[in-house]
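Q: I have three molecules that I believe assemble together. Could you output structure tokens for the complex as a whole instead of separate predictions?
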Amino acid sequence: MGRAPCCDKANVKKGPWSPEEDAKLKSYIEKHGTGGNWIALPQKIGLKRCGKSCRLRWLNYLRPNIKHGGFSEEEDRIILSLYVSIGSRWSIIAAQLPGRTDNDIKNYWNTRLKKKLLGKQRRDQQHGRKTSSLIVKQEDNNGLVDPSSFSSSFINSNQISSYWPHQLTNLPSAMSIPYYSNSSSEVFHGFNNDHTSIRRLLTKVNGGHYDHSLNTQFIPHHNNIAYPSNNITQLDDSNLSTLPREAMTSTCEMTSSTHYDHEGVGVGMGMLDGQNNHGINLVNNNNNTNTNDASTSDTTTCGKSSGWGEMSSLVSLPNLESDCNALIQVIGDLEGQVEENLRYPTHL
DNA sequence: AAGTGTTGCAACCGCGCGAAG
DNA sequence: TCTTCGCGCGGTTGCAACACT
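A: Yes, here they are, computed for all three components at once.
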């Protein structure tokens, strides 16, 4: 049985907001606040809108000090750095950019920043380092790879028209590509066009180790990560957002031999390392190094949603050029690995 | 000038989580 | 302990504006 709808869909207005609706909502909230109940809000004001819609309109548009468009290079850097380190946690990223909303950043990333990044990649590839055109062995229909879609949309870098990580995500969803590691016989099934897969690959390039279950696999160095007092032991995507910011900003060392195995579960999130193999400074390395004490985090951890809110001052943000170069290096390596693995698959 | 494709952005949707009862 | 409900999030869609042919 499905979830009950939050409002009567038949009697709510959808689509663009009129100036009158905006004015009503804005003046009410400025006078009375939201009352902690968005669902009831539209009825109080007399708006035929869903509460969720009101909330979205307020947060993304009507709220004071909202900035639209015109992202600066500094903001680009922040977005890039945070995307590399935490992925598409737009709300967290937005918390680092005053006046920006998660929706804004998400749109900006999807429509412009990726292009910017890949535009640079293309330019670089045209000038110098050029990914060799891949020799894609033709596979029959039982094969693992659809060579036509690969060669046109992904492999042939001359024709890359999509963007990183879109060039990875653009792979047809039905095409689940086993990913053959160069360094071992492990095989990664289920490479689909989602962020997780992309970031798995990115992390793989970083030198991490994956198990076959496709759970998160990295083992953060126990002594260098501040774990929250509620004993999170699995630093996977699902609980990343609950980590204190020290977990992001402390000097974390990725290691496959040092297990943080608090309860016999030794997993973590590779993206939390302080610096990846390509020299992208993801986090501040001169932050408190003694952060494994939960009490330490209490002094700097903010409240619920503001836990990340002041991180910007702690995040080390290299210049955009070097970030791009480093990311492009990552992308190039990814392509190289995929190329290698396609050419020399080691079927189990 | 008209038709078509692309881009950028606002808004919607569905799901997971946590609080409250 | 279970259920319900609202919030917040990330992904997706729809559409107007713009660019290109």
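A: One point stands out. The first strand of chain A starts at residue 179 and ends at 180.
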